[in-house]
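Final report, Chapter 2: Outcomes

The project's central promise was a pipeline that accepts a single protein chain and returns its three-dimensional structure in a standardized token representation, suitable for archiving and comparison. That pipeline is now operational. To close this chapter, we reproduce one record exactly as it appears in the project archive, with the input sequence first and the structure output second.
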Amino acid sequence: MADRYILYGGEGTGAVAVEAALALIGAPYDVIDLPDATALEAARTVNPAAQVPALALPDGQTLTESAAILLRLTELHPQAGLAPGVDDPRRGAFLRWLSFVATQVYAHYWVKDDPMRLVSDPAEAPVVEARLNDRIAACWAIMEAGLAPGGPYLLGEAPSVLDLYVTVISRFRPRRQRFYEVAPRMGQAVRRVDADPRLADLWARRYPFFDGWDRM
């Protein structure tokens, strides 16, 4: 429908962060999951890079790139309070760390999902995976050290799309246990997002919790 967003994604992908933002905004949306077996070719229909998420806006535009989608949603729905305003002193940090997560953490998963994209010997794949895990952990530690202290969330007293983004991406490998080790303050913030009652139904559907999930 013309007045609804259409989100292309899948369970356990970065599209869940976009869906979380739409849920907090209260905007009407539909989700089109791309089946695992045909995900690559199906994704090309909405994104030439064959990646999700992609978001079709009510005005007919289609956006790709998770950070860009999240940022645009905060611009279209400022009343939701999911980003510091342009005159807010925290705006620079918000833009910096949103971009940092996209380029320094999330971007690695193109290789992590299939190390054979860059190496030809299957025996090298575990080494690539281990080194990428170390790099991702190091990036989380850099972000932890760079964020200003204070407040229950990453930028202060209220959650932003940055909190949603980190909450979802930190569930990817090397997963939460290592994330908590290198970024304990950020760990407190994402636990609050995990427990946000407004997102309980979403997590149950898209990223279910199970016993011991955050100790992996």
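Archive annotation: The first strand starts at residue 5 and ends at 9.
This record, like all others produced under the grant, will remain available to the consortium after the project formally closes.
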